[in-house]
Write a structure and sequence with these properties.
The structure holds 2 protein chains of 2 kinds. By secondary structure, chain A is of the alpha+beta class. Chain A has 5 helices and 7 strands, in the order E-E-H-E-E-H-E-H-E-E-H-H. The radius of gyration of chain A is 30 Å and the shape is rod-shaped. Chain B has 27 helices and no strands. The chains are: A alpha+beta, B mainly alpha. The structure holds protoporphyrin IX containing FE and copper (II) ion.
């Protein structure tokens, strides 16, 4: 954004003279074009960024497989002492193959996390948290992230993008204005 | 989305943007100037040997000013990194569900955001400013221990890398995974940024993520660096002062750095010890912080015994800068210098006695708790003294508009809000309700964002001429600082509002009814982000392109007898470098002066040109209309592609003049009208529209006629589609207006406001 603003410093007044600073804004300049227009521009960019992010995300989330793969954690049950006594226990066979893979992944991972890429048959139970016996060890298994899909109107993306572009125009108004004014001046002579 | 990749790419974008700015600014330096001459300044290509020499110089320097700049550069990098975290947090919170990033990612984000900002951004930047200016202010040649100084700095980059190794490892792993089998990389992929909160409370911080170990080591290393720096400041102030500078006329910033350093050497060793104990718990089976051993609460006591003083370690230098800079822009001496010094000392002492106010909800004995409440309220008194002194300093002053002043005033405002909410939090019953809510996040951001970065920016502007010998772009700076104040107010006041609604903090998901306020906070935070980028741009661009300063007194400090030692040093340096004081231009002119036209002398001389003009105007208008309409068509095509504009309505256009409804015919008609009716109307109506320049008039004109277009071509869009339709109609017309006006100007067409027009 910043690169093409090139203040034409050749005819810019000096910032200081022997007595001190020169006023930053000459009286002949319009305050609207120097400050208000860029402000509106920044506002547009700041609104446009979130809009285009969520709008753009819904467009790509399916293509990149970004949603719908919940993550589970598996903590060895002996870390909980006896507090798991009241938790439902389900046998490992009842897990779908995707769930079992995720469980294995979680057991191997130092973060105790795994992703379920496939059928999540025991969604309700896993949301509550269950105890699963797997290869002789009891694990407390629970969904930690549902990774639900984002649902907003994809049209937000172009709206956001346009807002950003217009905003950039607004931010660059002061230098553009000075350029245009110079151009018009030259044309008239 | 993959968090690490997102973060690293954003970081790369910012870095590339900076490099691009530098390259463009350097290139523009050597280009011919409009008057036919060449800008002075030698254009050098950076050769390999020079680059090598520069690298050696910057990595081995022991000069306090160069080390100061290194500190500042390092802190800026960390701030950008932590800032990207913040933007990602806010983006995550746009939607009530955790569907952009996962809950885990969210926890990582706010953990590392807090740590990066507190440890790697704020302290290093203040130490950098201290390094650069403190010796100049007290008339010392250098810091007391220059080599130690360099070591203190060079411990920081490795400690940042250690602390954030998680991201580095993840991204390296992800990139290597393209060429290397996945199993080989499991070590790299096991590193993940800790998601334990910046306070690292056990038992979460005892969880088995290997990266947590490196984080703790990195923090420990940075603590050592900070302690080294603190010792150096104390030794410098105590032993290296010029003879003329005693304790009574030691300037306020040095006083603040001195007291800050004193807090540092008491607080940081404690943090280091606590971190080592946590590391032992994690790796060697000790039980300092486990339930069977010392218990998790022990960690909280140790952490906050460092943590609250740390708050003042980063706050006091900022107040020092405020006390130093504010008087310069209101033309008055700092009011109540002595009391500000006393209040600083009082804060330094008291800051160690309030730590348990962070633990009111952990079940401390009520009587002890009450005493902590008392000390916490008491510490507000010295802070309030400072605020009153600042306000009194401004009172009746000769206030001069400049970016540092805007930042100072904005800071005082935000600090008052932040401070008052802090007093409420010190009251136990209030804290019990608000402790776990966004109220706390709003409160401490109003203070740490509202005064710390603000004062850093103010200092960067204030001393920019001294450091670079050039002036920054002052218009942009005024704009940027106002934007920062507005953005911070918007963001953090909104967080306060969320807190009042008792929205709990640190949750990745939230009830949908809060989403409106979250959107506002996110927009505010992007405003902050943009203004930070503007500052970066201004600093880099002006380094090459700023107007050279022509006096050692760019702020008229001599007139109010505030020409402090660092500026005297600067004056000496300018004298030595240039021999003679630089000359000044006889007169200056603004970048654009409207031309004064002469009137045609005679009646004949008026008629002929008018006739000739009418003809050429029509031609210019038609050409302009053509260009404008073609450009407009491009925009409309995008709207069609998005499905918000129905080309059918174009076809119907033809039926208006009795032709069959056909797209091509309709479009031809559209083009024809765009080349005749509308340009002619523009040429005749333009006079009554605002704007000195044809371009501006063109934009106004386009805005007016867009309303007609919107009604004529409306085809029943609703909701978002309607909004998009409206936006695109407006855009298309603006482009038309610009094309039209541009072409007319280019072809020398008459300005709508002709010679009689008002100026
Ligand atoms: C652009 C500016 C900033 C924005 C938008 C921002 C945003 C946020 C948000 C939304 C959180 C809360 C995360 C959560 O708990 O859910 C947070 C936490 C935090 N921020 Fe910032 N921040 C900014 C600047 C800063 C600065 C400059 C600092 C330090 C100097 C800082 C230090 C912290 C700390 C320590 C926390 C952890 C709070 C806790 O205990 O939960 N932030 N930030
Ligand atoms: Cu505190």
């Amino acid at each position: 954004m910043s690169d093409d603003a090139s203040p034409s410093d050749a005819d810019e007044p000096s910032a200081t003279d022997s007595t001190g600073p020169v006023e930053p804004t000459a009286s002949s300049e319009s305050l609207v074009l120097t400050y208000a227009a860029p402000f509106l521009g920044v506002l547009l960019i700041s609104v446009g960024l979130p809009l285009s992010i969520v709008g753009g995300y819904v467009v790509v989330q399916d293509g990149l497989g970004l949603c719908g793969e919940p993550a589970i954690t598996a903590t060895p049950a002996d870390e909980y002492d006896d507090s798991l006594a009241t938790i439902e226990e389900i046998p490992a066979e009842q897990l779908s193959s995707a769930e079992r893979e995720a469980l294995e992944e979680a057991i191997d991972s130092p973060l105790q996390e795994g992703r379920v890429s496939g059928e999540l048959e025991n969604r309700a139970a896993l949301l509550e948290g269950v105890v699963v016996e797997y290869e002789g060890t009891h694990y407390y298994v629970q969904i930690t992230s549902q990774n639900s899909c984002l649902e907003v109107q994809p049209l937000l993306f172009p709206i956001g993008a346009v807002a950003i572009l217009m905003g950039i125009g607004g931010v660059l108004t002061p230098p553009i204005y000075r350029k245009l004014a110079g151009f018009e001046e030259r044309m008239r002579r | 989305m993959n968090r690490a990749l997102t973060e690293v790419s954003l970081f790369a974008v910012v870095v590339v943007g900076c490099l691009l700015t530098i390259v463009l600014a350097r290139r523009a330096r050597g280009e011919p100037s409009p008057d036919g001459g060449y800008a002075t300044g030698h254009r050098r290509e950076l050769s390999l040997a020079e680059a090598k020499a520069a690298a050696v110089r910057w990595t081995t320097t022991t000069n306090h000013r160069e080390i100061g700049l290194l500190y500042i550069a390092f802190g800026t990098v960390a701030a950008i990194w932590g800032g990207i975290d913040a933007m990602m947090i806010r983006t995550h919170l746009l939607t009530p569900e955790a569907n952009l990033w996962t809950e885990q990612t969210y926890n990582e984000l706010f953990t590392m955001h807090g740590l990066t900002m507190l440890i790697f951004f704020v302290t290093p930047v203040f130490f950098g400013i201290g390094n650069y200016f403190l010796p100049l202010l007290i008339g010392a040649d250098d810091m007391a221990f220059p080599r130690l100084n360099a070591i203190g700095f060079w411990l920081l980059p490795p400690s940042l890398l250690l602390a954030r190794l998680g991201i580095v490892a993840e991204v390296t792993g992800a990139m290597l995974a393209v060429v290397v089998p996945g199993e080989w990389l499991s070590v790299l992929l096991a590193f993940q940024e800790p998601a334990i909160g910046w306070t690292m409370y056990p038992p979460l911080s005892l969880a088995p993520n290997p990266q947590t170990n490196f984080l703790l080591l990195g923090l420990h290393l940075s603590g050592i660096a900070t302690t080294i720096g603190g010792i150096n400041f104390i030794a410098t102030v105590v032993y290296e002062r010029d003879e003329s500078i005693g304790w009574a006329n030691l300037d306020i910033f040095s006083w603040n750095m001195l007291i800050t350093s004193a807090i540092v050497i008491f607080a940081f060793p404690l943090l280091g010890t606590a971190l080592l104990m946590l590391l032992l718990d994690r790796n060697f089976g000790t039980t300092f912080f486990t339930v069977e051993g010392g218990g998790p609460i022990l960690w909280q006591h140790l952490l906050w015994f460092w943590g609250h003083p740390e708050v003042y370690i980063i706050f006091l230098p900022a107040t020092g800068l405020m006390s130093l800079i504010l008087p310069k822009f209101v033309g008055r001496k700092l009011f109540g210098f002595k009391f500000i010094v006393y209040s600083t000392i009082a804060i330094g002492v008291l800051s160690f006695g309030v730590w348990a106010h962070h633990m009111f909800v952990t079940g401390v004995d009520p009587r002890i708790r009450a005493s902590f409440m008392a000390t916490s309220i008491a510490i507000a008194v010295p802070s309030a003294i400072k605020v009153f002194n600042w306000i009194t300093t401004m009172w009746n002053g000769d206030v001069r508009l400049a970016a540092p002043l805007i930042l100072c005033v904005g800071s005082v405002g935000l600090f008052i809000v932040g401070g008052v909410t802090g007093i409420f939090l010190a009251v136990i019953p209030v804290d019990v309700i608000y402790h776990g809510t966004y109220y706390v996040v709003g409160h401490f951001h109003l203070i740490i964002m509202g005064i710390i970065p603000f004062m850093m920016f103010a200092a960067s502007y204030y001393w920019y001429p001294l450091i670079t010998g050039r002036m920054y772009d002052r218009r942009l700076a005024i704009f940027q600082s106002s934007l920062l104040v507005i953005g911070s107010g918007l963001t953090f006041m909104t967080l306060m509002a969320l807190g009042f609604l008792e929205h709990p903090r640190r949750y990745a998901t939230y009830p949908a009814e809060y989403s409106g306020l979250h959107v506002v906070a996110t927009v505010g935070s992007f405003i902050i982000g943009i203004s930070v980028l503007m500052w970066l741009y201004n600093m880099l661009w002006s380094y090459f392109q700023g107007t050279p300063v022509e006096t050692a007194d760019p702020w008229e400090l001599k007139a109010t007898q505030q020409f402090t030692p660092e500026w005297q040093w600067f004056e000496d340096r300018l004298e030595r470098k240039h021999g003679i004081p630089p000359s000044e231009p006889e007169e200056v002119r603004p970048s654009y002066v409207p031309a004064q036209e002469e009137r045609p002398p005679s009646l004949y001389g008026r008629i002929v040109p008018v006739a000739r003009r009418a003809l050429s105007d029509a031609g210019a208008g038609a050409a302009g209309g053509f260009v404008g309409t073609v450009l407009m068509t491009g925009v409309l095509l995008v709207a069609v592609a998005l499905g918000v504009f129905d080309p059918e309505s174009f076809a119907n256009l033809a039926t208006l003049v009795g032709l069959p409804a056909n797209l091509a015919l309709g479009y031809s008609l559209f083009l024809f009208a765009g080349m005749t009716v509308w340009p002619l109307l523009f040429l005749s109506l333009g006079e009554y529209l605002p704007g000195e320049l044809t371009f501006i008039t063109g934009l106004w004109y386009a805005t007016v006629i867009a309303s007609g277009f919107v009604i004529a071509f409306y085809t029943g869009q609703t909701g978002l589609e309607l909004v998009t339709y409206l936006v695109f109609a407006l855009l298309a017309h603006w482009i038309y207006g610009l094309g039209l006006a541009g072409m007319i100007t280019y072809l020398g067409g008459r300005r709508p406001t002709s010679s009689e027009g008002p100026r």
